[in-house]
């Protein structure tokens, strides 16, 4: 099962270094989501990744940077609902209902469905899907290997994510709630090893 890390919305000291370490450890992909960042600020972060890492990076804003840095894809959202004209690379998007998943499958390579569990990073953002509803969606082929669970993902529920038919999970609060500075790197990597074990 694939693991994806979404960046914190604000810049975090040492985040490029810890993201590189997570990619080395077995992280599938990094989603750069910095809604308030300028193109120059995002470019400065991207430039801290060697070219060999960049095909495993997806951006949520400033889509021209995908071509400039040969990144791995773009992520559609409310701010950027459509790919640039002529874009032929990997496309992902966020969905908040099973109807959205069914509709967006046509134009995307993979999707996030949220909130699958109660959010860790957004207080009061509760799970939107009863377990039985998700199981029925998997049986109907709506949830499959192209759909990634998002919202409240932790080592405690990755087994459930797999059993519900998801192809992977996207992590946000469980990662950045444990990382405030480079001093937290080793403990975060140990935690990520537990996530990898749970995802296997």
The low-confidence runs, each spanning 5 or more residues with pLDDT under 50, are none
Q: How much helix, percentage-wise, in residues?
A: 25-40%
Please give the radius of gyration in angstroms: 16 Å
Overall form: globular
Number of helices: 8
Q: Quote the average pLDDT.
A: 94
Q: Label the structural class.
A: alpha/beta
Please give the order of strands in the largest beta sheet.
1-2-3-4-5-6-7-8
N→C terminal distance = 6 Å
**In percent, how much strand structure appears in the residues?**
15-25%
Question: How many β strands by DSSP?
Answer: 8
Largest β sheet strand count, sense and barrel closure: 8 strands, parallel, barrel
List SSEs in N-to-C order.
EHEHEHEEHEHEHEHH
């Amino acid at each position: 099962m694939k693991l994806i890390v979404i960046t914190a919305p604000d810049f975090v000291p040492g985040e490029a270094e810890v993201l590189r370490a997570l990619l080395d450890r077995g992280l599938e992909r990094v989603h750069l989501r910095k809604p308030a960042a300028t193109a120059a600020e995002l470019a400065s972060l991207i430039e801290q990744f060697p070219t060999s890492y960049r095909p495993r990076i997806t951006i949520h804003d400033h889509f021209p940077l995908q071509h400039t840095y040969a990144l791995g894809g773009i992520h559609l959202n409310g701010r950027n609902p459509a790919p640039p004209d002529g874009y032929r690379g990997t496309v992902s998007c966020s969905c908040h209902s099973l109807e959205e998943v069914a509709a967006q499958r046509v134009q995307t390579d993979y999707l996030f469905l949220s909130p699958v569990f109660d959010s860790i990073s957004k207080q009061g953002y509760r799970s939107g899907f009863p377990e039985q509803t998700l199981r029925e969606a998997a049986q109907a082929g709506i949830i499959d290997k192209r759909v990634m669970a998002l919202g409240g993902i932790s080592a405690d529920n990755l087994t459930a994510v797999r059993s519900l038919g998801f192809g992977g999970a996207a992590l946000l609060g469980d990662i950045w709630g444990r990382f405030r500075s480079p001093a937290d790197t080793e403990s975060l990597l140990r935690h990520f090893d537990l996530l990898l074990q749970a995802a296997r």
